[in-house]
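Researcher: I'm comparing several assemblies side by side, and this is the next one on my list. It has 229 residues spread over two chains. Same procedure as the others: predict the full complex and return the structure.
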Amino acid sequence: DADVTQTPRNRITKTGKRIMLECSQTKGHDRMYWYRQDPGLGLRLIYYSFDVKDINKGEISDGYSVSRQAQAKFSLSLESAIPNQTALYFCATASSGDWNFNEQFFGPGTRLTVL
Amino acid sequence: GESVGLHLPTLSVQEGDNSIINCAYSNSASDYFIWYKQESGKGPQFIIDIRSNMDKRQGQRVTVLLNKTVKHLSLQIAATQPGDSAVYFCAEATKGDSWGKLQFGAGTQVVVTP
């Protein structure tokens, strides 16, 4: 969905490096999410934010941190990357004002490889 | 250490046939269910959703069936086309602390053959 953009789309880094993945949206949604996708494991929630001042851990937050710089921007950081953080990362948005606020809209993903 | 990828269940369907993708869920309190389609190299895209007070909902060429008794969800795709080749995920949401968060299944790979 072009309304949700992620940068970079691909990144290769080394163990121990700090990495930031960025997500921007033009949908005007208040809720934003970061997921990780590994082969055969579906999408697992890392962090989520229901508004600018609200940040919550998901099921696999260890080793990650986030920042909600504005309603439209939600960034994910790996403070010290390790090889098992190699995965596909997705940002998603949703609107609490919509009747169907459970429907999430996904960005194109960032493929991260940690060597 | 190196992670080992799991193999997704795969459904092979001939073009023009109907596809049925199944999903079992574990939380009897789940109130909302959604199906996503993920094509190679792209993010998941919404297909159809259903609330727990319904047992069937139809969209364009797709139907979702919900059986709360056995906690089973299915997605039916009519007249499957090559463009339907993708990974399909079901997800659920539960009222309460988890409301507004989706719990995803592992996915099913659909391969459409000519």
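Model: For your comparison table: Chain A has a mean pLDDT of 94.
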